[in-house]
C-alpha cells in the first residue's frame, strides 16, 4: 500500500444500527494506514438519540436510495475505495462492486440479494416485526430490546445485548426489507446484483454460524451465486458469532480477518 496515498475505506452500516458502531473499526483502519470513513444512510442524524427523535427522516428509503447516497460519497473520494458493509450494508457493498464504483468489497453477513433461495425460520422471525405490517414499507421501524436480542444479540449475554441496543440501535426504514423479501418474485429488483460480472474487484463474503437475521446458509448461498464469475470471491464463516459480530465484544476478530484479506489482495 502506498503510504503517500492511503486507500480509502467506506464502512456501510446495516439496518437498525447507527454508523457510530463503526468507530472502533475506523480507528483500527486508520492506524493500519487506510483512509476510513463511516457515513450514514440517507436520513441518519449525527447521533443515535437524534436519529431516534427524527425517525421520519429515514422512512421510505429503499435499497436504491441507500446505494445512491453512498455513490455520492464515493464520488468525492480521491480514488476508488474498499467498501465494508454489514447486513444490508453488505448487500449495498455488493451492488457498488458490481457497478464498478469500488476497488473491492467485504460483505459481512450480508442482506439477501436476488437469487438467494434459502429462507430459514430464524430469518423469517427476525424480519417479522417489519414484514408483518405492509404499511411498514413506508415507515421507519424501531426494534424492541427483545426483538434486537433475538435478531442480533442472540449469541451474547442479555446484558451485552441490552447495552448494544442502548448504544447503537436506531429506527430503520422498512422498505429495504420488503424489497429484499420480494426480490425473487419480481423480474426487476433493487436487490439484484450482477454476480456474473468478471471485470470487478475482489469480494469477501462472511457468514455467522449463530446469525438469526442472516443465517449462515443465506450468506453461503450468496457466495455460491458468484461461482461462475471468474473474479476473486472468497468466503469465511465465524461459527460461533451472531449478527452483532461487527459491534459486540468480538468485533476485533472480524476486523482483523478483513485486514488480513485485504493484505492478501494487495490492498
Describe this structure in words.
The protein is of the alpha/beta class and 267 residues long. The protein has one domain: Rossmann fold. 37% of the residues lie in helices and 13% in strands. The protein has a six-stranded parallel β-sheet with strand order 2-1-3-4-7-8, sandwiched between helices. Helix 1 links the parallel strand 1 and strand 2. Helix 3 packs across helix 4. The mean pLDDT is 96.
Count of β-strands: 8
Characterize the main sheet.
6 strands, parallel
Number of helical segments with 4 or more residues:
10
Number of domain modules: 1
Write down the Rg.
Answer: 17 Å
Short summary of the structure?
It is built from ten helices and eight strands.
Key traits:
single chain; alpha/beta; 6-stranded parallel sheet; two-stranded antiparallel sheet; 10 helices
Amino acid at each position: 500500500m502506498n503510504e503517500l496515498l492511503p486507500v480509502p475505506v467506506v464502512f456501510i452500516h446495516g439496518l437498525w444500527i447507527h454508523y457510530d458502531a463503526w468507530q472502533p473499526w475506523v480507528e483500527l483502519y486508520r492506524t493500519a494506514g487506510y483512509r476510513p470513513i463511516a457515513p450514514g444512510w440517507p436520513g441518519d442524524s449525527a447521533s443515535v438519540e437524534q436519529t431516534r427523535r427524527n425517525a421520519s427522516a429515514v422512512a421510505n428509503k429503499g435499497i436504491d436510495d441507500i446505494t445512491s447516497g453512498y455513490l455520492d460519497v464515493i464520488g468525492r473520494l480521491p480514488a476508488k475505495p474498499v467498501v465494508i458493509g454489514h447486513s444490508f450494508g453488505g448487500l449495498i457493498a455488493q451492488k457498488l462492486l458490481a457497478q464498478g464504483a469500488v476497488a473491492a468489497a467485504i460483505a459481512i453477513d450480508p442482506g439477501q440479494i436476488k437469487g438467494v433461495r434459502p429462507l430459514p425460520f430464524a430469518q423469517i422471525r427476525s424480519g417479522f416485526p417489519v414484514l408483518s405490517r405492509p404499511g411498514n414499507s413506508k415507515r421507519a421501524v424501531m426494534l424492541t430490546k427483545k426483538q434486537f436480542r433475538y435478531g442480533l444479540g442472540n449469541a451474547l449475554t442479555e446484558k451485552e445485548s441490552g447495552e448494544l441496543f442502548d448504544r447503537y440501535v436506531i429506527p430503520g426504514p422498512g422498505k429495504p426489507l420488503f424489497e429484499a423479501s420480494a426480490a425473487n418474485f419480481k423480474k426487476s429488483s433493487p436487490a439484484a446484483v450482477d454476480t456474473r460480472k468478471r471485470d470487478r474487484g475482489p469480494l469477501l463474503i462472511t457468514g455467522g454460524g449463530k446469525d438469526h437475521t442472516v443465517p449462515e446458509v443465506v450468506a453461503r448461498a450468496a457466495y455460491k451465486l458468484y461461482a461462475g464469475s471468474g473474479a476473486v470471491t472468497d468466503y469465511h464463516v465465524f461459527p460461533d458469532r451472531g449478527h452483532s459480530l461487527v459491534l459486540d465484544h468480538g468485533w476485533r476478530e472480524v476486523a482483523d480477518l478483513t485486514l488480513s484479506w485485504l493484505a492478501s489482495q494487495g490492498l
